[in-house]
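INTERNAL AUDIT FORM
Audit reference: QA-55
Scope: verify that the stored structure record matches its stored sequence.
Auditor: D.O.
Record contents follow.
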Amino acid sequence: MRSRINIKIIIYCLLIFICSTNTQWIPQNSGTSTHLTEIRFINQNTGWACGINGLILKTTNGGTNWTQQFTGINDKVLNRIRPVDENVVYCVGGFETFLKTTNGGISWQIIKNGPLGQGHSYYALHFLNQNTGWYCGTEQLVFKTTNGGITVDSFFTYANNVRDIYFQDISNGIACGEGGIIYKTTNGGINWYQIYVPVGSESADFMDLSFVGDTGWAVGRTNNKVYKTTNFGLNWDSVVRIIQNPAIHSYSIFFSNVYKGWVAGSHSVIGDAGRIYKTTNSGYNWHEQVADNYYANSSIFFINDNVGWCVGVFGKILKTTTGGQFVGISNSGNEAVENYKLYCNYPNPFNSQTIIKYQLSKSSNVKIVIYNYMGQEIETIVNEYKNKGSYNVKWDASGLASGVYFYKLIADDYIYTQKAVLIK
C-alpha cells in the first residue's frame, strides 16, 4: 500500500515538472478550493492572496506554501489586498469590509464591517504609507484616510462604480471604473475631474490600472482593449484590442516596466477557461501565454520582470520565474497560431475529467487518440477536419481506472504525445 502511494507521489511530481516546463506557469498548492480574487507580494518571498468568505492566505517562501490567516470575516468577498510593508497590510471587500494588520497578518483588525447585503462594496484601495490611502467601490464613492482607515478625511462621488485607484504621490491620483470613465486628481482626492478616453460607443468597463512612473495602462473588461497614457492620465490612447472575442473578459493588468506587461482574464463560455496575455513592447502587441489552464483568472502580479503570480477560482495559484512563454499571437482579430502544438492537459493529475488544448498552424484532419501505459489504444476523442486555430477538448475518463495515460495529436505530418495521470 505504501509503495503504491509513493508511486503516485512520484508520478504527480513528474507530471507537474513536465507540464510546467511547457507552460512556464507552475501550479502552486494554495491549500484551498475557495475562489481567490487578488494576489500581491512585498518581495519575492512574502505575499498575500485574498478571496471569498473572508479568506486571506500568506506565503513566506514565494508561494510554495500558503497559510490561512484568521480575519474574523467569513461571509464577505475580499476584493483587494495591499501590503505597505512586511507588517502593515490592508484589505477591502464587500458590504463595507475594511481590514488592517500591523503584524503581517498574525492578527487582523476589522476597521469596518457593514451588515450583509447593505452598504457599499469596496473594490480597490491604494496606500502611500502606513496611514495615508484611498479606497473606492460601489455607489460612485472614493474615500481618503490619513489614519489607516479609522476615519475618512474626504470623499468624492464618481459617475459609476469605481473599480481601481492609484496614486503617484500625495497629490496626484487616477481612478477608473465602469462605463469607460477615468478621473484624475491633483490635490490628493479633494477634487476630481473626468479625463477623455476614446472608448467610442463600445462598452469598456475599466477593471484595473497599472503604472510605471508617468506611463500607465487601463484594461477594459468587456471590449478587451488596452488604453495607455504617458503623462500620468492627462491623455489616453486606445493602444490595441487584445483579442476579438467578446466572450473573453479581461480583469487584471500589470506592468513590471514600461515595456513588459501582462493581462489576466477568462473565457466566459468555455468553462471559464483562464487566459494570460503578455506584451514586450508597451502594450502594442499581445501574445497568449496560458489558455490551457481551465479555471478563470482574476488577478496577476509581478515582483520583477520574471517572477510573477496569478490567482483565480477554486483556489488556483500559478507562478512563473521566467515571465512566461508565448504560445500564440492573439491581437490580430483572430486567435492566430504559429505552429502545431499539443499542450499538457489541465488539471493534471486529474479526477475523471480534464481539458486538452491543441493548436493548428493550418487547416488539417485531426485525431487525438488516448492510450494506456502499455500503448494500447483506449479511445479517439477527436477525429475530424479542423480549421487553423486553437481548440480545447474535454476528456471524460470517468469509466477508466487510475493510472498513467497518453494522448497523441495527429495532424498531417505532425505527431506529438503528452502524458496524463488519472487519480481517483
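Auditor finding: record pair retrieved intact. The chain has two domains: 25-329, 341-422.
Action required: none
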